[in-house]
Specification:
single chain; alpha/beta; Udp-n-acetylmuramoylalanyl-d-glutamate--2,6- Diaminopimelate Ligase, Chain: A, domain 1; six-stranded mixed sheet; five-stranded mixed sheet; 9 helices
């Protein structure tokens, strides 16, 4: 598949213009090639997986390796990854908040996987854009929902805080939900599914009697890999795709 066609396909669904101003979604490293035969998909690009890039033509991640301006290329892990991609003539693209804010991203994934009804964005933005999803589920206890979240996101663990006996109205904020806690408390769902909350955030949810299912940030967005694969395969069913689900929590031991 042509490089420009891949980028056009992604941006026709997840326009980079819809990304947050602080974000770095879009083409990050270009390369002097037009034909892309093998694509590497991952939520994060980790140094542990650097050798997996040896024979790929393009890398697409959810979280951008480069967020801010770089003053030097040194011997850090991120610099080594950048040098690897430049040396191997690898195209690098990130779809971060441009992906988060669209219905075709995590919204549709959770809506389908959990058979959610009466859905809407958890946090609304302009022009039918927003973050997360809220809606109603049936026939799942809090523990059953937690198990399902763990399985569909390939999470190593989830934390479950039972603060009430209801589990019908749920709100899911993939990635960090910390910045949206006031919105959660205003909406008052039965259960919140998110990651990256601190001590006082968890305490606030307990006081408000809102159940909490908390997973690690990377796992909460692991669906990015399969969603992006489906999009690309619809355009070229023969494109070779390497899927990586490595997480910063891989080396955590649960005692």
């Amino acid at each position: 598949m042509k490089k420009d066609k891949i980028i056009h396909t992604i941006e026709s669904i997840f326009p980079k213009e819809h990304a947050e101003p602080w974000d770095n979604s879009g083409l990050i490293i270009d390369a002097d090639k037009e034909d892309i035969n093998k694509i590497y998909l991952s939520v994060d690009l980790l140094y542990d997986n650097i050798n997996e890039l040896d024979d790929v033509d393009m890398v697409i991640t959810h979280h951008p390796l480069i967020f801010k301006g770089i003053k030097e290329i040194d011997m850090s892990a991120s610099s080594k990854l950048i040098k690897k991609m430049v040396k191997n003539d690898i195209v690098y693209y990130s779809a971060h908040t441009s992906f988060d804010i669209q219905r075709e991203g995590f919204y549709k994934f959770y809506e389908d996987e959990l058979n959610m009804k009466n859905t809407d964005f958890a946090i609304k933005a302009d022009d039918d854009l927003g973050y997360g999803i809220r809606g109603e589920i049936s026939d799942l206890s809090l523990k059953e929902l937690a198990e399902k979240i763990k399985n569909i996101n390939k999470a190593k663990y989830v934390q479950v805080y039972k603060n009430n006996d209801k589990n019908t109205k749920i709100m899911i904020l993939n990635g960090s939900g910390k910045d949206f806690l006031d919105n959660v408390l205003e909406s008052m769902p039965d259960t919140l599914v998110t990651s990256d909350l601190g001590y006082h955030d968890v305490q606030a949810l307990r006081n408000a009697k809102i159940n909490l299912i908390m997973q690690d940030h990377n796992s909460s967005e692991s669906a990015f890999v399969n969603i992006m694969e489906d999009i690309l395969k619809k355009v070229d069913k023969d494109i070779e795709i390497v899927k990586n689900f490595s997480s910063f929590t891989d080396n955590i031991e649960i005692l």
